[in-house]
Model the fold of this input.
Amino acid sequence: MDKKKNGIPKLRFPGFTGAWEQRKLGEVVKRETCQVISSDNNPSVEYDDVVSEQGELNKDVLAKHSVKKGIQFNKNHILYGKLRPYLHNWLNPNFKGVAVGDWWVLKPKNDIKKSFLYALIQTQRYDNVANISTGSKMPRADWNLVSNTNFAIPSQLDEQLKIGEVFSQLDSLITLHQRKLDHLKEQKKGLLQKMFPKKGEVVPEVRFPGFTNAWEQRKLGDISKTKRGLTYKPFNID
Done:
């Protein structure tokens, strides 16, 4: 979403030509503050429940059965983690729940698409402002600063929607490949356990066809060499 000085982004969908508007975040979103108690059908969402930078839940929050106090949200809201904003905790929920802990619960106003707002809070521009935080040990984003900062926003809802859809599709692809990666990591972990003999055994549990002999017991020092780090010596220039 980088833009040129004339208010027009460098990369844009065909058919959109007008300059983007400079608007304060507080003018386009409402920050919710209504506190409620979580329940089985109104689950709590905490930092530990969200995968940083991916905006994905790492567990079924409906199965937590916890009773905690926080800010009510629903599918019309976006969650942004204000505590240590450099951790990039955010969530675009499609359910109702209770945001427990240091969350901002943001609701886009009528002239802002939720998907666009969700993309906006992930931009470098927003990140830079959010990380001008208060506190040293437990830094928190400053709502007064962030809400009064101008951000470039398309005036046309269609353009906002298209931008939001692009990043939503990318998020779905990232999630899909992340799950594949996680599956491959688990598969590798399992094979490392089964394709090497267990302690006290000489034959692995899983083996390629055609190999039947027992494995040998050998010391690592007999089959490998170690090298120490090289010391830097400057060249002599005569």
